[in-house]
Design a protein that fits this description.
Layout lengths: L3 E3 L5 E3 L13 E4 L4 E6 L8 E7 L3 E2 L3 E2 L4 E8 L2 E5 L22 E3 L4 E4 L5 E4 L6 E8 L3 H13 L7 H10 L3 E2 L4 E2 L2
Helix pairs in contact: 1-2
Length: 187
């Protein structure tokens, strides 16, 4: 419970509330063959961002996409991911890994310690093209759209068989995600 006190001008404000501590291995985890997402900080605890730990299996490609309102941050913890975070000269519809920016930027193989910041409107993607799982910390602002999106996406991906691209397209449209290249999961 948060106590309210009055400042010298007479307005009420909350005393410092308790913080949130999520120990290693804790948080609500959603698992499918395509992804494992652990919710670390949700909109219930933060007005600024939702935070997740994501295990990306070999063969998973989120597909290039963009958001008009969301800002994202990715931090690679383990393994390697191919990543993109720029506007290409030409947006090809099949595969983003050969895209190049007007300034010469190309996709990067990101290892542990790599940080990727994606502002609203910037095309971005990640894929695990290695033979081992990769792990990343992922933060999306503002909350809780990505929380809901992950819940619904993992339900679709957990249905078995190849991803239902029509259902994923409808889901992404609801959550401000413009898909530029297909989501792929080569299990």
């Amino acid at each position: 419970m948060t106590a309210h006190v009055k400042n010298p001008a007479g307005a009420a404000f909350a005393e410092s509330p308790d913080g949130l501590l999520v120990p290693t291995g804790h948080g609500r985890t959603l698992r499918t063959a395509a992804q494992e997402v652990t919710f670390k900080v949700t909109g219930e605890h933060s007005r600024v961002a939702s935070s997740f730990e994501v295990v990306v299996p070999p063969g998973f490609d989120v597909g290039a996409h963009l958001h008009t309102r969301s800002e994202e941050l990715f931090y690679v913890l383990e393994g390697e991911l191919d990543v993109l975070a720029f506007e290409p000269r030409v947006r090809t519809r099949d595969d983003w890994r050969h895209w190049e920016s007007p300034g010469g930027k190309r996709t990067v193989r990101a290892g542990p310690g790599t940080v990727i910041v994606v502002p609203p409107g910037c095309p971005h993607a990640f894929a695990n093209r290695s033979g081992e799982p990769a792990k990343m910390f992922f933060q999306a602002s503002p909350p809780p759209d990505h929380e809901r999106y992950f819940e619904e996406l993992l339900e679709i991906l957990d249905a078995g068989g190849p991803p239902d691209h029509a259902a994923i397209a409808q889901l992404r449209a609801r959550y401000d995600i413009e898909q530029l290249t297909p989501l792929r999961h080569d299990a």
